[in-house]
Write a structure and sequence with these properties.
Elements lengths: L8 H24 L1 E2 L3 E2 L3 H13 L4 H14 L4 H22 L8 H28 L8 H26 L9 H23 L14 H11 L1 H21 L8 H5 L2 H44 L3 E5 L5 E4 L1 H7 L3 H4 L4 H4 L8 H9 L4 E7 L5 E10 L5 E10 L1 H23 L3 E6 L4 E4 L1 H7 L3 H4 L4 H4 L2 H17 L3 E8 L5 E12 L5 E10 L1 H22 L3 E7 L4 E4 L1 H7 L3 H5 L11 H15 L6 E8 L5 E13 L5 E10 L1 H17 L3 E5 L5 E4 L1 H7 L3 H4 L10 H4 L2 H11 L3 E2 L6 E4 L5 E13 L2 E10 L1 H20 L2 E5 L5 E4 L1 H7 L3 H4 L14 H14 L1 E9 L5 E12 L5 E10 L1 H15 L9 H18 L3 E9 L1 H8 L1 H17 L6 E6 L2 E6 L6 H15 L2 E3 L2 E3 L2 E9 L6 H17 L4 E4 L2 H20 L5 E10 L4 E13 L3 E3 L1 H11 L2 H22 ...
Helix pairs in contact: 1-2, 1-3, 2-4, 2-6, 3-4, 4-5, 5-6, 5-11, 6-9, 6-11, 7-9, 8-9, 8-11, 9-11, 36-37, 40-41, 42-43
Cofactor: Mg(2+)
GO molecular function: cyclic-guanylate-specific phosphodiesterase activity
EC number: 3.1.4.52
Length: about 1400
């Protein structure tokens, strides 16, 4: 990543230049060729960006981004819109560059097609990002987006298709012949093409009519590709592109109507096809021209060879006619090639009809190769010929090629040979060697005088005789076999042959035999030249016997022997040596010329250097280990040792001898042993090469460095070094290898390494250089000292701790006499060193322990050498204290007790603290009752006891009723006093063996074990109810509470403690539901109800997702006019299996689980959407009442902001909605609730208090918050009659509300009498079944049409007093004006 963010000065200049070019071209295109300064049918900056990244590298991407951003901002686009567009353009360029890989030049049509393909794919990114950005910022509509996306993509594709090749090609000048003719032709071409483009695309200076005239440009395109290549073609395409674009801008020319009719699709297609065809055609033509030039050059080269060869070459076609006649034949025959082409050889030279040449041509056409021996021509020359078939690339015969040689000089030489034979015979007769010749049958043709002298025969008598006639059968047979070898091979060979002289003595001859050939090249005899080497052989034999003894001694040890004569390069290798080096007889015959090629390339340089050092007498002896090739892909290790045994006067080496030892197995064993050493090492061990690559590693190393063993081997050791030291590590490794000296690396400094998971840890490392296979490796031993460091740290920490807490230490001998103490011992016991040393350890005995205690202690010490535990001891002043004592025994080498070390510390205070902690952990600090932990433990114990004794036990769960009200009213201090008194009273109602616990808050539990009958539980429960019903004195106040009790039994109701607690809780819950101040026994029906409640809760979590909720609407009527001004949204749950579920059943569950928040949001949005529809179609001033749970007020007012924003999205004001809340919410109103209500006020949303009068009503919150409506609960309206208390209460609420400027809505109006009474009381609005039950939206719509049929109250007899203003809330007006 760093290399993409680091720039040199040159790269910075390129980057800035790219950004400037991109921005400038983008500005020009957006000004002249773009729609709304955003979309263009061609986007040249895309081509510029891709070409720049291809030529300058991907590092220039910031230039693309900066240029795209500046260009977009320059064109007037906002920054928020320009940023994503610039990102999309940058990703397009990078993507295209990635897809093109290493393509940087246009050399063939496939290269251009790759650019076109890459641009097509990469442009999708920029088009998608850009069009979505415009859609997001409102620059285009949703309907315009598909067209915008297509145009954006088309523009980028066309820009890349034209501009990228233009830059890649024109960055190098054209190879143009600037002669006047070419210049004038180029100017004429450009001028003509320009004028044609003007007339076609701009209708200037002539209008050519309305037809497909644009395709005339293809004629110029083809001509340009043929004459001016890729440079001219791209210049023409660019000119046509600009002319067509200006024609579209000015609405003239061929594409004038394209914008309105096809959205510029025709122009885009034309330009894309024009560029694709033109560039591909130009590339194809250039490639063809290059291939043609190569073929021409190759043809000229071949022609030069044919004309230069010193043999005649004739090529015939399938009809035997001459197609080629080279210069050698022109000189030989006197016929030129022009005279011979198309003719048969007989037409040129009729005398050839008497030869096999014509027939040979026909045979060659059938696939044969024919050799014609020398034959006389008509001019006296001797000619030889070879005819063979000529085949094409498909191996089909397409003619015949004939090679002709002039053999005249060879024939003349043969004729002159007879003259030379006489001279030669004289030489033969006077040579001291034996010379002879034999024919193919083995008969002697010629012998010299030396032969006659040694073997008692003469030249005349020997003719016609064979070796069998002259020598013993076995020797004659060997001589014949040697002759046949020479005749069969046709090559000269040397043999050692044993022949008897006329005196019967066997002599050894070194015979050089070679074949004799006639003028036609045929072997007709074998000639031999034999030299008597008997004396030399005798000397060699003696030397060989000596050498054999030497070689036997060496080869018996498995070594091969070699002898190198540096004067002539001859090398002798013993059989073992040849076996080691994998040489054969042919290699020996060739004097092992290729021996250097058998050496491994990696070892060759070093071996040759060592050899040269010894040859130059700079080393005492030569020794080198290297690999030699053994088979196709096998290498063997060889130890070569040698010594120069002969030098000339100048010290130049003349002869060198030595041995070869196959050490492959030793090397393998060396690696195997090294591998075993590494694997068997208990420490982490690595073998590292000179380049830092890990060659071997053992499992401890893999474990230490957290690598798989296979991954660690082959890894570079630098990866295991911390990054801060990694840069210098190769240099340090090289320095160590030069020093070639083992050393521990961590002796004087701290080292760390890196695990595979990136964790750094401390290590100690030792390094050992080791030479293997001509290379130096480093054997690395790594010791992870993390644990040691940790232990050292812990030891230091423990020493500090011991020093801080004063741990006492006492050392005694085997007889329990004190021999050493520390200062902490003196501080703890009061005994100084003078007091204690030499005394028995009994001076510390307190006397509190009986003999059994000490007997147990000594038994442990004698058996294990260790004891620890709590003990009471005595100080010097006689004080008894509690201590923790640890005694360890130190043994001698013989296993006898030598020392006992005691470490102890006083734990008197600690025991007190432990007791305190235990009590705090198990008892409630306020009431001193058992807490939840102790209760759980006691319950488990009681269950085990009851199970063992076959008894029953009862669990009672108590919850105080309305304790929170007392706590909030009188304060937490008084609440604590009440809880303490409650605990005291409960304890008074149970036995001492029973467990009473406080689980938390106002919840208590009781465990009653060993029950005789369930009637005793009734007595206890009634006693508790009675005790807690008595008043509590809390300061100056008397408080009254009650309690709800749930009771369950073991084993009747459950067997597990957890289930018993759950059963008691369910029973207590039912007691609460049935009115409190009572107790309930658990029944199975309660569990079923709880399970149903749980299932309903589970279904409720999926109801919103499954769209099971729906809204009903109930109208709210203005009683004075009978008109519907409001409606209330009421949620219903259509359960898939249980049908319609009442809100009273599922709303409490939703509030308990928190689901009410999401449900409330859904209700608001659905209701708001519905009121928007009804206000638009029926009632512009219709209001919607929406209930909001107190739970929804517990979160921040972010949800309110979303509600208000949603109203604005629907085009609704806040006055269209009324939020209905409960009184209890305002009683406990905190800052969050206030923020909600103030947010409603600021948004113009009205607030209504639902079910007013059923809770703890207070006038203060009506003054504090902006309340608009009070809704009288239906419980007051249901029994409404004249002169009833409910009527008086309703009238009081109405008067109070009007005095405070509030409106009143009465709920639950079901009869005409209720309507009349409420109207008489000046109630503002009414709601109930008298008007309409809650209806679905579709049915509710019908109420707008039947409004006149709705019941209305009888007008009151007197005119109602005008309500006081909303801001007037004085007490006098509240109770004084209306009576």
């Amino acid at each position: 990543m760093r290399r993409f963010l680091t720039f040199s000065n040159v790269e910075l200049v390129r980057l800035i230049g790219l950004a400037a070019a991109y921005a400038l071209v983008a500005k020009l295109v957006l000004m002249f060729f773009a729609t709304n300064y955003v979309i263009s049918i061609i986007w040249p900056p895309g081509g510029i960006a891709l070409a720049a990244l291809l030529l300058g590298g991907k590092k220039l991407w910031p230039g693309v981004f900066l240029g795209a951003l500046i260009g977009s901002l320059w064109a007037g686009n906002p920054l928020a819109q320009a940023l994503p567009i610039a990102c999309g353009n940058t990703v397009e360029a990078l993507g295209g560059c990635y897809l093109l890989g290493k393509t940087r030049k246009l050399q063939q049509p496939q290269d251009y097609l790759r650019i076109l393909f890459a641009g097509t794919l990469a442009s999708v990114v920029a088009a998608m990002v850009g069009s979505l950005t415009l859609l997001h910022f409102g620059a285009i509509t949703v309907q315009q987006w598909p067209t915008n996306l297509a145009h954006w993509w088309m523009g980028d594709v066309l820009g890349i298709a034209i501009v990228t090749p233009l830059i890649l090609v024109w960055r190098q000048p054209p190879s143009f012949d600037w002669n006047p003719y070419q210049v004038w032709r180029a100017l004429l071409y450009v001028t003509t093409a320009f004028l044609a483009g003007q007339m076609i695309f701009l209708d200037w200076p002539l209008h050519l009519g309305h037809y497909g005239k644009a395709f005339y440009m293809f004629a110029f395109l083809v001509y340009g590709a043929l004459r001016f290549g890729l440079h001219g073609t791209l210049l023409l395409i660019s000119m046509v592109m600009l002319q067509s674009m200006f024609g579209v801008i000015f609405h003239v020319g061929f594409f004038a109507a394209d914008s309105s009719e096809t959205g510029l699709l025709l122009q885009w297609s034309f330009l894309l096809v024009l560029s694709s065809v033109g560039i591909s055609l130009a590339l194809a033509i250039e490639r063809y021209q290059q291939s043609e030039q190569v073929a021409k050059d190759l043809g000229d080269f071949n022609q030069y060879i044919l004309q230069s060869i010193q043999e005649g070459v004739v090529v015939y076609d399938l009809h035997g006619r001459i197609k080629l006649w080279n210069s050698f034949l022109e000189i030989l025959s006197g016929q030129t090639q022009a005279d011979c082409l198309g003719k048969t050889p007989i037409e040129l030279f009729p005398w050839l009809e008497q030869t096999e040449i014509p027939h040979g041509i026909q045979r060659a056409l059938h696939g044969e190769t024919i050799h014609h021996p020398p034959f006389p021509a008509n001019d006296g020359r001797w000619i030889s010929s070879m005819q063979m078939p000529l085949r094409d690339d498909n191996k089909q015969i397409v003619g015949v090629i004939e090679l002709v040689k002039d053999e005249s000089s060879n024939i003349e030489f043969g004729k002159s040979l007879s003259v030379s034979e006489l001279r030669f015979q004289s030489i033969l007769d006077n040579t001291p060697t034996v010379i002879y010749s034999k024919d193919l049958e083995g008969q002697y043709l010629l012998i010299n005088r030396q032969f006659e002298k040694l073997f008692a025969v003469n030249n005349k008598d020997i003719k016609g005789k064979r070796d069998m006639d002259l020598f013993p059968a076995d020797q004659a047979e060997q001589l014949r076999e040697h002759d046949l070898q020479v005749l069969n091979s046709g090559q000269a060979q040397i043999f050692e042959e044993k022949l008897p002289h006329q005196d019967g003595e066997i002599h050894t001859y070194l015979s050089h035999k070679f074949p004799l050939r006639n003028a036609q090249g045929e072997i007709y005899a074998v000639c031999g030249i034999s030299t008597d080497i008997s004396e030399r052989k005798q000397s060699e034999k003696l030397l060989q016997e000596s050498e054999l003894r030497w070689k036997f001694a060496l080869e018996s040890g498995g070594d091969g022997v070699w002898d190198w004569d540096l004067t002539n390069g001859k090398v002798f290798l013993s059989p073992r040596c040849m076996e080691i080096l994998n040489f054969n007889e042919q290699d020996r015959d060739n004097d092992y010329r290729n021996w250097e090629a058998t050496i491994h390339p990696e070892d060759s340089a070093r071996m040759m250097a060592d050899l040269q050092t010894h040859l130059e007498n700079r080393s005492e002896r030569f020794s080198n280990e290297h690999r030699v090739k053994h088979g196709e892909e096998q290498w063997r290790w060889i130890l070569t040792r040698g010594l120069v045994i002969s030098r000339d006067m100048n010290g130049k080496a003349l002869r060198m001898i030595g041995t070869q030892t196959d050490i492959t197995e030793r090397k393998q064993l060396q690696w195997l042993q090294l591998s075993k050493i590494v694997d068997g090492s208990p420490e982490a061990t690595l073998l590292v090469g000179e380049n830092g690559v890990i060659k071997l590693a053992n499992p401890p190393a893999a474990k230490v460095f957290v690598y798989a063993l296979t991954d660690l081997i082959g890894q570079t050791v630098d990866a295991l070094v911390p990054e801060r030291a990694r840069a210098k590590h190769p240099e340090q490794r090289a320095q160590f290898l030069l020093e070639n000296k083992a050393r521990p690396m961590s002796a004087s400094r701290s080292l760390t390494a890196i695990r595979g998971n990136g964790v750094e840890f401390p290590v100690e490392i030792s390094l050992t250089p080791i030479d293997i296979d001509n290379r130096r490796y480093i054997l690395v031993s790594v010791l992870d000292i993390s644990e040691r460091k940790r232990l050292e740290h812990e030891m230091q920490l423990m020493a500090m701790i011991y020093q801080a807490i004063g741990e006492a230490v006492m050392v005694a001998d085997a007889d329990n006499h004190i021999i050493a103490i520390n200062e902490a011992f003196t501080r703890l016991t009061g005994y100084t060193a003078e007091d204690a040393i030499g005394k028995s350890t009994d001076i510390l005995k307190s006397g509190r322990h009986d003999p059994d205690f000490y007997q147990t202690m000594w038994h442990s010490l004698l058996q294990t050498g260790h004891w620890q535990g709590e003990i009471w001891n005595k100080r010097k002043n006689g004080d008894i204290y509690h201590e923790w004592l640890v005694i360890n025994t130190i043994y001698s080498e013989q296993g006898e007790v030598e020392r006992r070390v005691a470490m102890f510390s006083e734990i008197t205070e600690q025991k007190h603290v432990e007791q305190t902690i235990w009590r705090q952990a198990n008892f409630d600090p306020l009431t001193d009752l058992a807490n939840r932990r102790m209760f759980q433990d006691r319950l488990n114990q009681e269950i085990k006891k009851a199970h063992r004794d076959k008894n029953s036990l009862a669990v009672m769960l108590l919850d105080l009723d309305r304790f929170k009200e007392i706590n909030d009213t009188l304060g937490h201090g008084m609440g604590d006093i009440l809880l303490q008194e409650t605990a005291r009273r409960i304890l008074a109602c149970v036995r001492n063996v029973d467990t009473v616990a406080r689980l938390g808050g106002d919840e208590f539990t009781i465990i009653l074990g060993e029950l005789d009958s369930e009637t005793s539980i009734d007595r206890v429960a009634q006693a508790i109810l009675h005790q807690l019903a008595e008043p509590f004195r809390l300061g100056e106040e008397l408080a009254y509470i009650s309690v709800s009790i749930g009771i369950t039994f073991y084993p009747q109701d459950a067997l597990e403690a957890e289930q018993l607690i759950k059963n008691a809780d369910q029973a207590m819950y039912y007691a609460k539901q049935q009115g409190r101040n009572r107790y309930n026994f658990f029944t199975s029906e309660m569990e079923q109800t709880a399970q149903n409640r749980m299932r309903l809760t589970s279904d409720l979590r999926q109801a919103l997702t499954n769209q099971e909720f729906c809204l009903f609407y109930q109208p709210i009527i203005e009683l004075s006019s009978g008109k519907m001004h409001k409606t209330e949204a009421l949620i219903r749950w259509q359960h898939p299996t249980r049908g319609m579920i009442s809100p009273a059943e599922f709303i409490p569950l939703a509030e308990e689980t928190g689901l009410i928040v999401d449900i409330g949001d859904w209700v608001f949005r659905m209701a708001a959407k519905q009121i928007a529809e009804w206000r638009a179609q029926y009632r512009p001033n219709l209001q919607m009442g929406i209930n909001k749970s107190p739970i929804q007020f517990t979160r921040s007012n972010l949800g309110d902001n979303k509600w208000i924003d949603y109203l604005q999205e629907l085009g609704l004001s806040g006055q269209c909605v009324v939020i209905e809340i409960t009184e209890s919410l305002l009683l406990d109103a905190d800052n969050i609730v206030r923020d909600h209500l103030y947010a409603y006020r600021d948004a113009g949303i009205q607030v209504a208090i639902d079910d007013f009068g059923t809770g703890y009503s207070s006038l203060s919150y009506l003054k504090k918050f902006d309340i608009d409506y009070l809704k009288i609960d239906q419980s007051f309206v249901r029994n409404l009659e004249a002169d009833s208390s409910d009527l008086a209460l309703c009238e009081a609420i109405i008067v109070m509300a009007h005095k405070l400027g509030l409106k009143v809505i009465a709920e639950g109006i079901e009869t005409r009498q209720q309507l009349e009474l409420l109207s008489a009381a000046r109630c503002d609005y009414g709601q109930g079944y008298l008007f309409s039950k809650p209806l679905p939206a579709a049915e509710f719509t019908q109420l707008f049409d039947t409004e006149d049929q709705r019941p209305t109250p009888t007008p009151p007899a007197t005119t109602a007093a005008k309500p006081a203003g909303r801001g007037d809330s004085s007490i006098s007006k509240l109770f004084g004006s209306d009576k």
